[in-house]
Specification:
Length: about 110
């Protein structure tokens, strides 16, 4: 049974970074790619620069960057590090894998 058509969720994601570096741009691009492919536009990404806002990073217990925090839908989830591995991002942030796989060639 598919739940994607039954309930539309808005995903609120926070991306913690340290400055506007190449690593920041890559992390944001990778996260946006996952969101576009799997969340059908039902998401928001807030970028938090820990160099500009260290108090927030401390309050939110951010120890390394990049870190993605899924605030909603609950439960809250975190992923620290490389966001290039889509399957890991989906698993750690609890994002349903709704993308259809290519049909298998069952020639025998």
């Amino acid at each position: 049974m598919e739940t994607s058509s039954q309930e539309v969720k808005t995903w609120r994601l926070l991306l913690y970074v340290a400055g506007e570096s190449a690593r920041y741009r890559t992390a944001l691009s990778d996260l946006k790619q996952v969101c576009e492919q799997y969340l059908d536009g039902n998401y928001s990404i807030e970028v938090v620069d820990v160099l500009v806002n260290p108090e927030r990073a401390q309050r939110d217990h951010i120890l390394a960057v990049p870190t993605v925090v899924k605030k909603t839908p609950l439960p809250e989830r975190r992923l620290i590090g490389d966001l290039a591995h889509i399957e890991l991002v989906l698993e750690k942030l609890d994002i349903p894998n709704t993308r259809r796989a290519a049909p298998e060639n069952k020639a025998k």
